[in-house]
Amino acid sequence: MEQRRRVGVYGICRDPDGRVLLVRGSDRADFPGVWQLPGGGLEHGEHPEAGVLREFAEESGLSVEVTGLLAAVADVTPLPGAGVTLHTDRIVFAVRPGGGALRDEADGTTDLVRWSSPEEAAGLPLMPFTAEALGLPVTPLRRAAPGTAPLPPPAADRHQRFAAYGLVTDPAGRVLLTMIADGYPGAGWWHLPGGGTDHGEQPAGGLLRELVEEAGQLGRVVELLMVHNLHNPAALGPEGRPLDWHGVRVVYRVLVDEPTEARVTELAGGSTSAAAWFPPDRLEGLRMTEVAALATGHRVA
Q1: What are phi and psi of 211, to 5 degrees?
Q2: Is the full-model pTM beyond 0.90?
Q3: Is the pLDDT assigned to residue 224 strictly greater than 70?
Q4: Residue 105 near residue 59 (C-beta atoms within 8 A)
């Protein structure tokens, strides 16, 4: 099967009684009759927070406000009718209702929306990522519906990429940064360790793999910090041609308990030219990428 990727954004929304808002997959969904958190595929160039607001309005009629970032997980679904194995990176936000009138979606991939108590939710067939996000037992799903519509072919001149990065520190408070190699966007700038995840790989696991490849360090993920969106409609990469580039990055806090000298390994693939530990007082004035500057609390030089 062909391997494809997509990014999905979802929200946990609760009412004053502690009930959570859920939507049911329609006959047009990959899993008809299965319930999940409101949300869906992120559009090209769309900020994840904007995407979850749009999805709530479409699927429930409610306007919501993002109040926090809860999780980033991935799953792989074979789509028999499409001849595709689909990897979905799912970003889950905490949201609160702000207005609107609750109503079902018409002619979409969901057909019912309702508030469910924890006991009611536990009795519903749930998408695994939804059950996990709600702290409920996870039950594997049957195969996707045979009638799933074929996915449109990927556009040759645009690319959406999901990646996981880390604000990596050691017990002394030093920060680990990596330098982008020549020929890549941002060449010569210091960046957070991390990069694109592989097909079938969880975000946190992909970050720890990248940490070994780019700097030779063994780390442990402490918490999910932020999501960063980068849209460059005229990016120029190693291929030497313009590309409408959309990068979606989740950033974790990572601790390296036993740091060693930072060394780039051959597994890094050429996109990283150097890695180094920096005491906090040496971060100011470094040429850092936007996401690195945001994560470390410094201005872009």
Answers
A1: -65, -40
A2: yes
A3: yes
A4: yes
Q: Is the model's pLDDT at 150 over the cut of 90?
A: no
User: Could you say which DSSP state residue 120 is in?
Assistant: H
First to last CA, the chain: 45
Query: Strand, coil or helix: what is 175?
Result: strand
**What backbone torsions phi and psi does residue 123 show, to the nearest 5 degrees?**
-95, 0
Contact between 48 and 229 under an 8 Å Cβ cutoff? The reply is: yes
Residues 35, 254: Cα–Cα separation, whole Å:
33
- 3-state DSSP of 232-296: EEEEECCCCCEEEEEEEEEEEEEECCCCCCCCCCHHHCCCEEEEEEECHHHCCCCCECHHHHHHH
Give 167-210 pLDDT, tens digit per residue: 999 999 999 999 999 888 789 999 999 999 999 999 999 999 99
For 230, the token pair is: 């980068």
In percent, how much of the chain has pLDDT > 70?
93
161 close to 220: Cβ distance less than 8 angstroms: no
Q: Are strands 110-116 and 20-25 parallel, antiparallel or unpaired?
A: antiparallel
Q: What is the CA radius of gyration of the chain?
A: 20
Closest to 275 (Cα-Cα) out of 204, 232, 216, 233: 216
Strands (E), 80-171: 84-100, 110-116, 158-169
Write the CB contacts of 210 (distance below 8 Å, at least 6 apart in sequence).
164, 193, 194, 195
What are the structure tokens assigned to 219, written together?
């780390």
Sequence-distant (6+) residues with CB within 8 A of 300 are 288, 289, 290, 293
Calculate the alpha carbon distances from 160 to 42, 78, 244, 287 in Å.
10, 20, 9, 25
Report d(CA 293, CA 301) in Å as an integer: 9
